[in-house]
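Run log, item B.
One chain of 149 residues. Sequence copied directly from the ordering sheet:
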Amino acid sequence: MLRIRPATLGDVYFMSSRLRGDDVRELETAMQMSARRTLYHSFAQSHLCFVGSPERDPVVMFGVGPDPRNPQLGIIWMVGTHDLAKSSRSIIRQTPEVLQSFLVLYPEGLHVLSDSRNLLHQRWLNLIGFQVLDTQDVHGVPFLHVFYR
């Protein structure tokens, strides 16, 4: 089982050099800057940010921050290393509890734009109960706008 703990700047540095290729592509497409810089930005803008580690090193980092258009809505995000797949069942089992803690801060719900090419993220979002609201063009790439409450 993954041990979930608050993320540190050291974790950002560790994770940013080990991200899955699909996560790098999604971050760089969405933000139009390097994946490392985007991850630092996401960490800094999050009210809550965690890592999950099966042993010593984290394999997943995720967080939530306020939507600037509606502070009652949270914007979630998640990235992983290549070792993430080995812990996928544990992540899926632990996600509902994490989402409930995020909803305490953001009672109107959680949402995110997710790169339609990132199939692992699409499967995870579907399995944990996010609903697709629409598809939006982000720098020429279709991103799914998904919502959870």
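Observations after the first pass:
- The beta strands are 3-6, 48-53, 60-67, 70-80, 109-115, 131-138, 141-148.
- DSSP finds five helices and seven strands in the chain.
Flagged for discussion on Thursday.
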